[in-house]
Every structure is written in C-alpha cells, then in structure tokens.
Specification:
The chain has about 280 residues and is mainly beta. The chain has a single domain, classed as Neuraminidase (6 Propeller). Helices cover about 5% and strands about 50% of the residues. The protein is built from one helix and 24 strands. The chain has one helix spanning about 230-240, and strands spanning about 5-10, 40-45, 45-50, 60-65, 70-75, 85-90, 95-100, 110-115, 120-125, 130-135, 140-145, 150-155, 160, 165-170, 180-185, 185, 190, 195-200, 205-210, 215-220, 225-230, 250-255, 260-265, 270-275. The protein has a five-stranded antiparallel beta sheet, covered by helices on one side. A five-stranded mixed beta sheet has the order 2-21-20-19-18, with no helix packed on it. Strands 4-5-6-7 form a four-stranded antiparallel beta sheet, with no helix packed on it. Strand 14 and strand 15 (about 180-185) form a beta hairpin. The two termini are about 30 Å apart.
C-alpha cells in the first residue's frame, strides 16, 4: 500500500568536491578561489509518496518506461551482495517483481536504460553491455565496452554512460561505438565517483557513489550546476535500521509522461516519489 506524506528536506550548504581522475586528460576549468561563492546551486527536495522496495535488491539502475518501473540489480559469484544480478519489471505500488531475468553469476549487473523499447544493461568489471527487447526481456545483442560500467541513461538519441570517474561517455545505441567523452566539473574541479544517471528535462542527474548527493549536470558544458542532498532520507533509514549504514543512495527514475521523479538506494526498503526544487 502506498504511504502518502509530504515534507521538505533542508538545503545543506554546498561542498566543493575535488578529485583526481587518472583516466581523464582534459584540463578542468580554473578552480574557484578560496572564499568565492560556489557555482553549484543547492536544490531542495520534497518527498511526495513512499512505496515499498525490495530490501534485498542491490539497486544499480532504475528507470520508468511508458509508466512501468524497471530495475537493474548487482551481485555476482565474486561479490557479497547475495543473489545474482537481475533485470526486473517491478510493480510500483507493491514493490514486487512482475518479471525477472537473472544474469549468469559471473556478471555483476550495473545501470540500465531504455530507448525505443530496448533495454541496455551495463556490467561492472566484465565490460559487457547486454541489450534486450521489451516486453519479453529477450537478449538480442551484447557489446564490449572499454571502461567499467556504472550508470547509463539516454537523451533520446545517444546513450550516456558513467564509469565511476568524472567522465561521461556518449555511445551510438545501434553499434555502441564511442562518440565522445565529456569531463564533469564542479566549481572548477573534477566531480568524482559519478554513478547512476537519469536524463531529466535537458539535464543529466547523477548519484555520487558513497555520498548522499545527486548532481544536476549541464550536458552542453559538463558543468555541475546543482546539487541535491539526500542526507535526511538516508539518515532516516539508518536510524530505523542499522544495516542501512552502508547502503548508499542509488537510483533515479523519471516518468516523462507524468513528470514524476523516483529515487531509492541499495537494499533500501522504500522507494520515493520526490519533487526537486528550482
């Protein structure tokens, strides 16, 4: 059953995140001088609805397609996450799986996205991308990828991939040929640990791995222009269940038809419909 409530989460002061990215040879913008105001705007967040979420799902990818929720999870024979990686069609209202495809245990599943009724699922260290058709989850292709797979989204034309660095990689969906690489910066420094991705109204929203932040990124420049702090939600879950201490926020889904946004985390017992501020 859906629990409905509404509250606004406090806006936390901006933090300048510096990283060193050995895979990126591009020079970032000039760093912000000490005492200079951050150019990364703090964006508020309100929780509109709360839905159940499978607490055993190690969430790696989350997407809404034609009103239907899909989730990609992680796990492999070399990892401690428990069950194998899956691609799941999820009932939003109940959190229950309606259709599940289980990956071979040698693959650790990562982000997913859907373009033209086709699902793309990354793997982590195996550097393989699986391609499935809807609604049957039939695997029709697989492509090699030169980086680790973390998050993936689409702008409706190209596929956009993260690998845990400060880079975004743009691929042709038909051939998975790399088209270009874009560095992401925040206040002049590389933004490290970019993870799960979602394209919303012309901007890329990205979880930052192991931190409670979602960054809003301008794809035309690679600049992080906004930051959403999920600490109040994460802290609430940790206060209820000590096991959630290390289960980080991960998963952003946008319903283009209803304009609703959903977020969750790894092994979180809840999934949230949220509204971002301006």
């Amino acid at each position: 059953m859906t629990k409905r409530f509404l509250f606004s989460l406090p806006v936390i002061a901006a933090v300048v995140l510096a990283s060193c990215n050995s895979n990126d040879t591009k020079t970032p913008a000039t760093p912000v001088e000490p005492g200079t105001a951050s150019t990364v705007k703090n964006i508020g967040i309100s929780v509109i609805n709360t839905y159940p979420h499978d607490p055993e799902s190690f969430t790696q990818g989350l997407v809404i397609h034609k009103g239907q929720l899909y989730e990609g999870t992680g796990g492999a024979d070399y990892a401690p996450e428990g069950r194998a990686s899956e691609l799941i069609k999820v009932n939003l209202q109940t959190g229950k799986a309606e259709k599940t495809l289980t990956l071979d245990k040698k693959y650790f599943g990562e982000g997913i996205t859907i373009l033209h009724d086709t699902v793309y699922q990354l793997t982590w260290r195996e550097k393989v991308v699986f391609v499935y058709t809807l609604p049957d989850f039939k695997k029709v292709k697989e492509f090699p990828i030169n980086t680790e797979g973390w998050g993936i989204t689409t702008d409706g034309k190209e596929l956009i991939v993260s690998d845990g660095t400060s880079n975004l990689y743009y691929y042709d969906p038909a051939t998975f040929q790399l088209l270009r690489t874009q560095s992401v910066t925040a206040d002049g420094d590389f933004l490290d640990s970019i993870n799960e991705l979602e394209f919303i109204d012309g901007f890329i929203y990205a979880n930052q791995w192991n931190r409670p932040y979602i960054f809003k990124i301008d794809p035309s420049s690679g600049l992080a222009v906004g930051k959403i702090d999920l600490s109040p939600i994460w802290d609430r879950l940790k206060s209820r269940d000590a096991k959630n201490t290390e289960n980080v926020p991960n998963g952003i889904a946008y319903d283009q038809d209803s304009k609703k946004i959903y977020i969750t985390g790894k092994k979180w017992p809840e999934l949230y419909e949220v509204q971002f501020g301006n």
